[in-house]
Amino acid sequence: MNHQIVWSVALILGVVLGGCERNPEQTNTNASVAEPALSNRVDINTAVRQNLGITFARVESRNVAQTLRVPGRFELLPTARREYRMPAAGRVELLVQQYQKVEAGDLLYRLDMPRWRELQRELTDIEASARLAKADLDSIGPLLAAHEEYHAEIQNAIDLWTQRVADLEQLQAAGGARGGDVAQARASLATARADLAEAKEKKAELTARALTATARFDAAQSRMAILLESASSLTTRSVSDLTEIDVGKPKWQRIGEIEILALSPGVVDLFHAISGSFVEQSAPVLTTVQPDKVRFRAHALQSDLGKLLNGLTATVVAPQGGSLRDSAGIAGTLILAPTADPERRTIEILMTPNGGLPLDSWARAGVSAFLEIVVSGGGGEELAIPLTCVARDGTQSIIFRRDPADPNKAIRMDADLGLDDGRWVVIKSGVAEGNEIVLDGVYQLMVATSGSITKGGHFHPDGTFHDGDD
Predict the structure, then answer these.
(1) CA 390, CA 438: separation in Å to the nearest integer?
(2) What is the Cα–Cα distance from 96 to 260, expressed in whole angstroms?
(3) Comparing 67-77+293-378 with 79-114+242-289, is the CATH topology the same?
(4) What residue ranges do the domains of the chain occupy?
(5) Alpha carbon of 142 to those of 18, 130, 206: distances in Å?
(6) Rounded distance between C-alpha atoms, residue 281 and residue 288, angstroms
(7) Most exposed: 134, 216, 267, 433, by fewest CB within 10 Å?
């Protein structure tokens, strides 16, 4: 039994120790093969670039030393948001979907409002009153014309009887006229004068009636104008559109449910009511926004106030990493807030993008990014590369420049770096503007070309480490 245990232990030790033993012949063979000299050039053909996801960034001139970078976010301009509210209490029927794009004049929702029915009745009544006043006023003109003719005839009769009475009185004085003829002439003259007085009274009545009809017509017209303005507010249509004749009637008489149209282009953002609900007057129904009307809001340290001025040129750059990394910057003009925050010791700064150019799709409200400001007193531009192009191999900073003569090779270079702003770093030598520097995949290339990183091996039971798999 004891002999069996001894032989078992010996066998186990032999296996363990034998696993770490190297074949002398194999050792001699490996030692006789010289390791190839390391080169500073790496093959990066299409297959390698695809497998490692290699991308490139170009060397460009930037004012890194005098660039201030502050984080912030995009927000909508105050004029970018529009609310559509209830002009009067009524039932709502929504006709658009959330985030649907609409143009000016597109139908948003329909309203069934009791107030509109009342307004239509008031418009009908006042229109009838205006027509009656107009008819009365129009009838007075011919009456006054006829009365003027009657007045002229009476005046002629008075003139004739006046002359007749004077002639008869002269004859009577000479003894050639009878007294009865004179009395009859005087009676006829009195009657004519009475008719004239009555005619003047009638004219005064017609004049007053004309003034009353004019006042009634003007009042009806004013009332009609006010009601049409109210109808315009309820329907969001112009007065000229409401009064346009459609199949023999003005349009306001034919409107049943009120259709609310978009006043400006935009995107439907929020709903404040649901279809079929009864909504009170002035309550919001939906909100649209114009996503391209944005500005950038950031917070700078108060210690940087000496460098910041209104009107400085600033550029919003997308956050590092992800699909937005290669997005172009958005330039604009800087505006400083009139007051600062004493608790956080910051000051708000706004950047409004330059007009005339469409914004990239990523520039929308709520997106976080960085604002790069070339502060006052900035120096000249220097060659710079993204800081993420730099890899560390021990204590060395390494970059890989794409060979201008062979795009399928990358040249490993010790990076001669200068100042950085957290995103870009000055590179002092070894590159020219426009050169391509490896961005994604730089770490894999550094590992593949490093002489200081252990490539692989295994540990022995005694804690020592050996290269290779055996």
Answers:
(1) 9
(2) 11
(3) no
(4) 43-62+383-449, 67-77+293-378, 79-114+242-289, 116-231
(5) 137, 20, 11
(6) 19
(7) 433
What is the C-alpha separation between 432 and 410, in angstroms, rounded? 15
What is the CA 449 to chain-centroid distance, rounded? 51
Length of the chain: 470
CATH number 2.40.30.170 is the correct assignment for the domain at 67-77+293-378:
yes
Q: From CA 154, how far away is CA 196, in angstroms rounded?
A: 6
> Tell me, what's the pLDDT at 33?
45
The structural architecture, per CATH, of the domain 79-114+242-289 is Beta Barrel (2.40)
Question: 458 and 466 in contact (C-beta within 8 Å)?
Answer: yes
Tell me how far apart the 2 most distant CA atoms of the chain are, in Å: 198
- In the DSSP assignment, the letter for residue 296 is E
Tokens of 222: 């004013």
Q: Where are the alpha helices (DSSP H) in 236-352?
A: 239-242, 251-254
The dihedral through the CA atoms of 375, 376, 379, 380 has a sign that is: positive
Asked whether 425 and 72 are in contact (CB, 8 A), the reply is no
Q: What is the pTM of this model?
A: 0.61
CB 437 within 8 A of CB 387: no
Contacts of 451 (CB under 8 A, 6+ apart): 38
Give residue 139's identity as a one-letter amino acid code. S
Q: In Å, how far from its chain's centre is CA 281?
A: 26
Rounded Cα–Cα distance for residues 444 and 121 (Å):
81
- Pick the closest to residue 241 from 109, 232, 66 (CA basis): 232
The amino acid that residue 252 corresponds to is W
Q: Specify whether the CB–CB gap between 399 and 438 falls below 8 A.
A: yes
Block residue for tokens 């010791």: 345
CB 406 within 8 A of CB 396: no
